[in-house]
Design goal:
single chain; 684 residues; alpha+beta; OB fold (Dihydrolipoamide Acetyltransferase, E2P); 5 domains; 5-stranded mixed barrel; 25 helices; globular
Amino acid sequence: MRESERFGLWAPVFLGLGILLYFSLRFEPAWGWAALLAFAAFLAQWRLAARPLLRLELIAAGLAVLGFALAGLRVSIIDHSPLTRELSYGILQGTVSAVSREGDGRLRADVEIEALEHVPDPPRKVRLTYRGSDPRALALRPGDRIEGPVKLWPNSLPAAPGGFDYGRVLWFEGIGAGGVMLGAPEIQGEAEGMLVAAHRALHALRQAIGARVLAAMSPDTGAVAVALMTGERAYLPEEVEENLRASGLAHVLAISGLHMALLTGALFGGLRLLMALVPRLALHYPVKKWAAALALGGAAAYLVISGMSTATQRAFIMIALVLLSLMLDRPAMTMRNVALAAFALLVLRPESVLSAGFQMSFAAVTALVAVYETRAAQLNALLADWRARGPLQLALLYGAGLLLTSFIAGLATAPFAAFHFNRVAAYGLAGNLLAMPLVALLVMPFAVAAFALMPFGLEAWPLAIMELGLEGLLAAAATVAAWPGAVRGVPGGPEAALGFITLGGLWLALWKGQVRFAGSLFLAGGVLLWVLAPRPDILIAENARLIAVRGEDGKLILNASRPAFQASIWLREEGDTRSPRAAAEDTLWRCDGLSCLYEAPGAPRIAHIKDERALLEDCPWADIIVMEKDVGWGLEDKACHARLVLDYGDLSRTGTQALYWSEGKLTVETVRGVQGVRPWTRPY
């Protein structure tokens, strides 16, 4: 394929750039004009056949503008009003749309609201949790109409300016608030309709599969098996999850492209083998296409049973394209198919370009296909005479292939993992090398067999073999996680840095010839931006209780360890593996019952006021005043000459503030300022 012919591979990239531009704005744009511009650009390029370069530029611009318009259209379709202020108590009436169990045992239910006491214009849907043991709550099913007391709060703000916006993720899921059930709800009946009946049947099926798997295995292996087969992660012990994360095997728990590929591959190979054993079928019918079609049906069934998460839908689309290519006698794993899958996903869900799952999935697949295209001749030569090789040679070949695949995929996804999760599994390659053969050979193939035999009550023997593989997986994870320095923190980088790294990787993967090596310059630029990115000297939480100051060693010093969740996020984004408690154990914060004071050479003096009686003493001394209550009035009478004065009201309006201190100059950045005013943000 010539370079000009590979331009089409960039179509999802240009589409994604337009989507990113839409989400980067701090106001809601009038996106309709973008659709008209895209249409005009596509019309104009047809008249420029004699000017190919200008034609390609118009197509690229048209795709970017189209992405902008698609993002706006998606937002307008989803549009709903989230809760704007906390509701401490109210009676909710609604219909349960989804039920699941959290890892800590809590019940989680998404409820479509019909009426909400004290809220005349309630959100469309809320996500509630229940910690009790009342059997009425634990027996909730999709379609149940419920009534009961709840406490609700708005979707969360980012923990720091430019941080992960979970509230936006919830908004795109249709969730307008979070909350807790203050007691077991009363079930008022069942909603009607075929869709509701289908949801209830699917919920019952997933519960039944989980129960039979747990009955056949030990608690730890059974919990992992249920997570792999149904997407239900409530039974996973915290220690097991932590070991998998530390060993670079956390991806095993998230149903994604890997699981879909292994399951459909096992199903396709098994069906093709069975049909090949019947001479009449093998000689006279396209058994390969039949096997691909049946495997596609199996993939669709797995999609439904596993909960149809966004990641699973993405994996299904990619696998479906591969299987359809086989049915049409087309090459299956090509860069065109990868580009087509990415394009389709961005059209259907433009917001997915912001997710770690989308970025990491396509980074891994793109890198693997690019390497295969570059070394296709050598790889095909190695595989051509596999029948003539002995068992030891085949095992070594498989191990080498697995090692190379893990290395390439790990290298391609590392920047995205560092950006989104701020941690790296140092021995992830070793963990994957030890465990993935078990997943590929014992776990997923026999999960397919268990699914197939479960209706007949014959799932015991495939589950027993599957358990052997899972025991090996967990043993490998525990071993690697115990090695010194298994988990290393990585400071977060700016979005621009990740953008340059992504562009550099795409440039290397999508172009051929010498021109592709120019991508190294983008990679180097991204790394440089990451390393040189300024970091805030002070962080002040929106609740006015938590403050972090950067010490002389470059680490954050906390005035308190709570709220622990926000403190842990701040530390994680710094690449700091300390606990909040450890980061708060510093004598530079001097506290009494009224206030806490911070003073260090070259740093601004901070007074954290808990009681307004401390204002008279602390105001003349401090450069920055933070008050836990709304007491900003009358500060002139207290000789308060601080550069910055913040009370609870200020911070609740702006969200967490990041302060930069340089040569006596103070620069302030707020969560609200970075977010702007968008449909998923709280009003000021």
